[in-house]
Design brief:
The structure holds two protein chains of two kinds. By secondary structure, chain A is of the alpha+beta class. Chain A has 17 helices and 19 strands. Chain A has a five-stranded mixed beta sheet with strand order 2-1-5-3-4. Chain A has a five-stranded antiparallel beta sheet with strand order 9-10-15-11-12. Chain A has a four-stranded antiparallel beta sheet with strand order 16-17-18-19. In chain B, 65% of the residues are buried. The chains are: A alpha+beta, B alpha+beta. Chains A and B meet through helix 1, helix 2, helix 3, helix 4 and helix 5 of A and helix 1, helix 3, helix 13, strand 27 and strand 28 of B.
């Protein structure tokens, strides 16, 4: 399949690659085509972080750096970006970058196979936080490194390395020079109907025309799931339609009572916007995959993918989110829960794409909680996810929306539990009634994450947690729980 | 010492090299991305890639393999099946019971039936999925209890007895019995299994293997190819993690790659995709236990009968010695007067379970720790008091159930120190008060000790060799039989050699492990890498030093014993010369500047049939205090604080030792909390990638994570006064398990704690609310 040339900036130089198949991964290009073997494959599915590299693009006056998983990212997607791998950080005389030197000094490298990935995540943190004068707290280090697995160290020295980078002699990147080079590279829009196997339209009309003309093309954004179809299911993707450069899909806007999040907005930015309006979501946002996945993957992609265990949908359903779809024929919007028609089935037509998600702004009396139960707190997939938004006038429930994940073939709205308590007084008995309704409405399956019995039991118990928290109980959720000091 | 004290800026090399927190010899290359792993080696011209063809059925008769569709795919060169093996179709394993490729039957989902060979790894993997395999299914045993019920074993049972357990139980004041199920564990080395086989001239071979045991890979490859061992050279510069998973399992990759290379007359690389790695390779053995214990009013054990069922998978592999070590460690730190331990080695239709850090020791220890806290709760005592009451004595009560006298017992002072430094007693009291006021979150705390026997239980493996070369410029090159998997072995051995020759650390360089340099080396395993190879290298360096000392003594007219080597200088009573100068002079005078060294561990012996004797040269000790919280609504847990006091003797490298302790502890906690292997009813491992199999991540490490080292040299004569450190800290993770059980008990004081490992949220909630899951006997594993 004919494809466009890939052009990106590495070590300040323009790299040009031709004849790269549309479904070739960035990691394959790095290791096999460029012989840059410093970047490792640990899992091939974006879960271990050994393949982490950093990309940057102009944003505001400078550059926005993102650590991403190269193993599931398609190579064409870095066209027009700056790219750093672990080989690119040390100076010509061998002087290590603070992200590297700190790892050495803190004894953060044992077998060394995860090390390049950690170094690149640290480099991303260095550029985004240390260079901006922000302290790397232990919490920030844990959160931003949760997508990198290490089997040797037990992490203590790596977290220490993250916190000590700033103490080392500073290293700067000539951003003005890079911005100039990247601006010069700005991709020309692909001609609609062109034969290229990898299309990156930059406007919505172009995207819709391409979608209409190529209904068989695979639409991708961050590729954090489609990438696994390639690496794990060995599917071939002869035609790829990449939406991440479409201007209209990259916008976050507030207006008309909504927070509108474009379908191609990375999860990290989408959650930042949601958390800014609803601070209680901060911990949940950090638990969504690891940072490299949140930097690549998009909220639109998570929603369009339609997995029953996608973590954003229970929350978005509880928030009464509407999904906006468009095709060359026009646009329409649906309540998110109506978008899902069956297991991994959605209402999306063959010529349609997801444009944005409209999330209603919080009302002052909103009480919102979202609970995720998994075997590991960070970078895991829910066995059960439950999001509850409640409004009350005095003790009377004036509105309640409940979204649930992991308990049905699709992300679902818990209408029975809502109906059981809507308009009722909010009491322990009401919470118990809602809990029972949750356990009645859903018939979850048993799988490797949990048994059906556990999922049902916990669904109800989470409603009890919600009740207790609504009554002022704090510190009854271990997802963020640390000892201020040891007793006594 | 506190872990935080080890952070240091590299300073001008002090002397001696040992005892300092030297940076890992590869760290600078690793952070720069220039450290080479097997898959990074530039490929020789014409290199092909192989991918395995896996059985989709747990047990069945293999009737045929249709490769047509696969062979038609672009880039595919062909397939390799059992018929292509020139030599013995069975691997050269100790029990000789494992086919290289499945022959007439398949015995687990993921068993390798053959290979597809193609121009690229992805082409080979795509084609391997297109192979049609015709199998008549047969009944399959998927866990140890099912296999035991069917009397399905890979090896005969072993019984170890002391005293009269039955009559002691009858005479005991109190009795309890119980069952326990403990899950296995995937190694999850970050670098998956990989081998690269290069055919050379005249029937010779070079194998690059990510292996803990190059000598065994050499033996297996030669055997499969029908060659003598001298025709095969195996090399390993480093592994991206091993943890026991590359002790025998690496050999399979190498044999497969070599068979493909032989058939297609080309270099062949075989790198398993992560999912295939999970499906193909063995794990830590899952265990099931039945126990009866008798004890007095103070919790002193007066009788114990213990049955251990090891889930070995479809072949013996290392299951015999693993199950033996479980027997040797089911006492952990405690004297068992009247005891009977029966060990069954169950054959199931799953991956063949194998070595994993601790090698059966963890499975031995966890059951006795669980029994002791059950006794304490039964009597209303503090579990730590019951543990202390049962500790081995120094003057008496000091002989193990396998008749080895415990001569180096530091358990009592070590636990006393940790009990005080962790504030255990006061915290336990405060926790009880706190729990009484906290209906949802309950906290628990536990101190558990570790006493771990050091030496291969197979006495013959306790030997090692090394080769030290001094070049005419005074630089030193070291090679030894041990392999580097991140544990810092090369760094420590370099420190030992530097001090033996009195040269700065940076004058010593360690090269890749290679069967042609140091032959017949044992696996780097059993925590003994530094003990064995460090001593062998020390002896090699000592030979060179002796040569140089004799030479200088001749020059200066003094005794050789009066010549000293330190700080890069050679000092006689008459003259001080630079080491490099002495080397130059010695070369000119035809003095040998290189030497081998050989070491065998003294004192050890034991009877393989009765499992009695002295299998271990010494014991490594440690103890951990872990505090946790559990959520009684969801079963979620969190480790809140960890204090560890561990015995590494005189540390050769404190930073590396602390790294082993921290990493081992967290890996042990992973085994007992988030890491759950789930085989479904068809025998497929459903947790076959990091998306579904959850090792600890950054957020699982508590901020309060304090490591202290016990300040005493090894009482046995061991290199530098040090002790082995690789495995023992893993079992400190049992304290987290016991702390979780303590918290469950706080939530349910009215009944005993029946919980299966790992303590996933589901298993904790089942222990808290068995009635919601149909009672206590419900299976721990969701199907």
């Amino acid at each position: 399949m004919e494809t466009q040339t890939i052009r990106f900036i590495r070590r300040g130089e323009l790299i040009t690659l031709g004849n790269v198949p549309p479904d070739r991964t960035l990691l394959e290009v790095l290791r096999e085509d460029l012989g840059a073997c410093g970047t490792k494959e640990g899992c091939g599915e974006g879960d271990c972080g050994a393949c982490t590299v950093v990309v940057a693009e102009p944003e505001g006056a400078g550059l926005r750096y993102r650590a991403i998983n190269s193993c599931i990212r398609l190579a064409h997607s870095v066209d027009g970006l700056a790219l750093w791998t672990v080989e690119d950080l040390a100076q010509a005389d061998g002087t290590l970058h603070p992200a590297q030197e700190s790892m050495v000094q803190c004894h953060g490298s044992q077998c060394g196979f995860c090390t390049p990935g950690f170094v690149m995540s640290l480099f991303g943190m260095y550029q985004n936080h240390v260079r901006a004068g922000r302290e790397i707290t232990r919490h920030l280090a844990q959160a931003d490194l949760s997508g990198n697995l290490c089997r040797c160290t037990g992490y203590r020295p790596i977290l220490e390395a993250a916190q000590r980078m700033a103490d080392l002699p500073a290293t700067a990147i000539d951003e003005a020079n890079l911005v100039a080079k990247l601006t010069a590279l700005r991709v020309q829009p692909a001609a609609p109907g062109s034969a290229s196997g990898y299309q990156m339209p930059t406007t919505l009309p172009e995207l819709l025309a391409l979608r209409r003309d190529h209904p068989g093309a695979q639409v991708v954004a961050g590729c954090t799931d489609v990438g696994l179809w390639v690496t794990k299911q060995h599917r071939r993707l002869p035609q790829v339609l990449d939406v991440t450069r479409v201007r209209e899909l990259r916008q976050i806007e507030t207006g008309r009572g909504h927070l509108s999040i474009g379908a191609a907005v990375p999860l990290a930015d989408a959650f930042a916007a949601l958390v800014a309006q609803r601070p209680s979501l901060a911990a949940f946002a950090e638990r969504f995959a690891g940072l490299p996945v949140r930097n690549s993957g998009t909220l639109g992609g998570n929603v369009a993918n339609g997995s029953p265990i996608g973590d954003s949908m229970p929350l978005l359903i509880a928030l009464d989110t509407r999904i906006v779809l468009a095709s060359a024929r026009g646009a329409r919007s649906l309540a998110l829960e109506d978008f899902y028609t069956g297991y991994r089935q959605t209402a999306l037509a063959a010529d349609e794409v997801v444009v944005r998600l409209d999330v209603p702004l919080p009302a002052p009396d909103e009480f919102l909680r979202v609970y995720k139960i998994s075997k590991r707190y960070d970078d895991d997939i829910s066995a059960v996810c439950l999001a509850i938004r409640m409004h009350r006038a005095g003790d009377t429930i004036t509105g309640v929306r409940i979204g649930a994940g992991g308990v049905a073939a699709t992300p679902a709205r818990a209408r029975q539990a809502e109906a059981a308590i809507e308009g009722q007084g909010w009491s322990e008995a009401a919470a118990e009634a809602a809990a029972n309704a949750l356990r009645t409405q859903f018939q979850p399956i048993s799988d490797m994450r949990a048994s059906a019995a556990y999922r049902r039991e916990v669904l109800g118990n989470l409603m009890r947690r919600f009740w207790l928290e609504s009554q002022g109980a704090s510190d009854i959720n271990l997802e963020r729980y640390a000892l201020a000091q040891l007793m006594p | 010492m506190n872990a935080r004290d080890t952070h240091s800026t590299p300073a001008p090399a002090p002397t001696p090299a040992m005892g300092a927190s030297r940076i890992h010899e590869s760290a600078r290359a690793q952070v720069a991305g220039t450290a080479t792993y097997i898959d990074d080696i530039p490929e020789a011209r014409g290199t092909l890639h192989a991918a395995p063809i896996l059985s989709p059925v747990a047990h069945g008769r293999l009737r045929g393999v249709d490769t047509q569709a696969a062979q038609a795919l672009p880039g595919v060169r062909g397939v390799v099946l059992a018929a292509d093996i020139p030599g013995d179709p069975l691997l050269a394993t100790f029990m000789h019971d494992e086919p290289i490729f499945a022959l007439d039957t398949v015995q687990h989902v993921g068993q390798v039936i053959g290979l597809v060979v193609a121009d690229s790894a992805m082409a080979a993997r795509r084609a391997a999925r297109k192979i049609q395999i015709d199998i008549d299914p047969l009944p399959a045993w998927l866990d140890a209890r099912a296999a035991h019920a069917a009397q399905s074993y890979v090896l005969p049972p072993v019984v170890v007895r002391r005293g009269a357990a039955d009559s002691a139980l009858t005479a005991s004041c109190h009795r309890l019995d119980g069952q326990l199920e403990v899950g296995g564990q995937e190694h999850f080395y970050l670098e998956g299994q990989v081998a690269y086989a290069l055919p050379l001239e005249q029937g010779q071979w070079r194998i690059h293997s990510s292996t803990q045991h190059p000598g065994e890979v050499q033996h297996w490859v030669a055997h499969a190819l029908g060659l003598a061992s001298h025709a095969v050279t195996v090399e390993c510069r480093r592994m991206g993690g091993g943890f026991g998973g590359k002790e025998t399992q690496a050999g399979h990759m190498a044999v497969w790659a070599a068979l493909a290379a032989r058939k297609f007359r080309a270099p062949v690389k075989l790198r398993l995709d992560r999912d295939d790695d999970f499906m193909v390779t063995g794990k830590r053995h899952p265990f099931a236990y039945d126990w009866q214990v008798g004890f007095d009013d103070q919790g002193l054990i007066t009788g114990l009968k213990l049955t251990m069922l090891a889930n070995c998978g479809f072949s013996a592999d290392l299951s015999g010695p693993v199950a033996d070590r479980a027997i040797f460690h089911s006492d952990n730190a405690y004297f068992l007067s009247d005891v009977e331990i029966t060990s069954y080695r169950c054959k199931t239709h799953t991956q063949s379970h194998t070595a994993f850090r601790g090698f059966g020791g963890p499975q031995g220890m966890i059951v006795i720790e669980a029994i002791l806290s059950d006794i304490a709760r039964h009597l209303g005592l503090d579990p730590l008091d019951v543990r202390r009451r049962n500790l081995y004595g120094v003057q008496d009560r000091n002989v193990t159930h396998y008749q080895m006298k415990v001569e180096d017992n530091i358990l009592d002072p070590l636990i006393t120190t940790l009990e005080a430094s962790s504030g255990y007693r006061a915290r336990r009291e405060a926790l009880a008060t706190w729990n009484a006021r906290s209906p949802v979150i309950k906290r628990g705390i536990a101190i558990t000790p570790v006493k771990f026997g050091i030496s291969f239980t197979a006495t013959l493996f306790n030997q090692a060799g090394a080769l030290v070369n001094v070049f005419t410029d005074g630089s030193v090159q070291l090679n030894h039989g041990g392999t580097e998997m991140g544990q810092g072995l090369h760094t420590k051995v370099m420190q030992i050699v530097a001090d033996e020759l009195g040269v700065p650390f940076d004058r010593v360089l360690c090269t890749a492990t290679e069967t042609g340099k140091v032959p017949n080396a044992s696996a780097t395993a059993a925590s003994a890498g530094t003990d064995l190879n460090g001593r062998a290298a020390q002896f090699a360096a000592r030979n060179i030093r002796d040569n140089l000392a004799a030479f200088v003594a001749g020059l200066d007219g003094c005794g050789a014993g009066a010549v000293h080597f330190a700080g890069g200088q050679v000092i006689s009573p008459k003259t001080t010369r630079g080491f490099d100068e002495v080397v130059r002079l010695a070369y000119a005078n035809r003095i040998q500047l290189w030497s081998d060294g050989f070491y065998r561990t003294p004192k050890i012996h034991y009877d393989k049939t009765t499992l009695t004797g002295r299998p271990f040269y010494y014991f490594s000790y440690g103890a951990a205090c872990t505090e946790v919280a559990i959520d009684t609504l969801t079963g979620e847990t969190r480790v809140l604080a960890v204090d560890i006091l561990h015995d590494v003797g005189t540390s050769i490298n404190p930073a590396i030792d602390i790294g082993q302790i921290e990493g081992g502890y967290i890996q042990g906690v992973g085994w007992l909390t988030s890491e759950q292997l789930v085989w479904n009813e068809r025998g497929e491992l459903a947790t076959h990638a990091p998306s579904t199999y959850k090792i600890p991540a950054t957020g699982d490490v508590p901020e309060h994570f304090k490591i202290a080292l016990w300040p005493e040299a090894n009482r046995e004569d061991n290199v530098g006064g040090s002790k082995a450190v690789g495995e023992p800290p893993f079992m400190l993770g049992i304290s987290a398990w016991e702390a979780i059980r303590d918290a469950v008990a706080a939530a349910c004081p009215q009944r005993s704690v029946v919980m299966q490992a790992p303590a996933t949220p589901e298993n904790v909630l089942r222990a808290l609310r068995p009635e919601a899951f149909g009672g206590l006997t419900a299976p721990s594993h969701p199907r």
